[in-house]
Amino acid sequence: xVQLAESGGGLVQAGGSLRLSCAASGRxxxxxxxxxxxxxxxxxxxxxxxxxxxxxxxxxxxxxKGRFTISRDxxxxxxxxxxxxxxxxxxxVYYCAATYSSSVYTTYFETRSYxxxxxxxxxxxxx
Length: 127
What we know:
The protein is mainly β. 0% of the residues lie in helices and 51% in strands. It is built from no helices and eleven strands. It has strands spanning 2-7, 10-13, 18-26, 32-39, 46-51, 58-60, 68-73, 78-83, 92-100, 116-117, 121-126. A hairpin with a 6-residue loop joins strand 4 (32-39) and strand 5.
């Protein structure tokens, strides 16, 4: 099992940057692929991006491409989401999620693929 905790959210002006962190506890974190998701007011939870268990592969939603970067440090059991050029429509609660992956190459984009979730961190982008 793995437990996840997000941090780094806050209030930022449009065009600014934030770096979210997902800290994992538990054994063998390097065997888990990780995804970032967000849920805006009145919206369904949607994928932001994902990273493979070894960090070698990433996948991003169209809304995140070119602005967001996911990275991980398995030695520290952390995954980061660097968000640049933020827009008001990025306002949401951001969640990290983890799923065991037998493949070092695979990223997972669907909410249903993940069995472990953090509590979320609020990101608010003002115009």
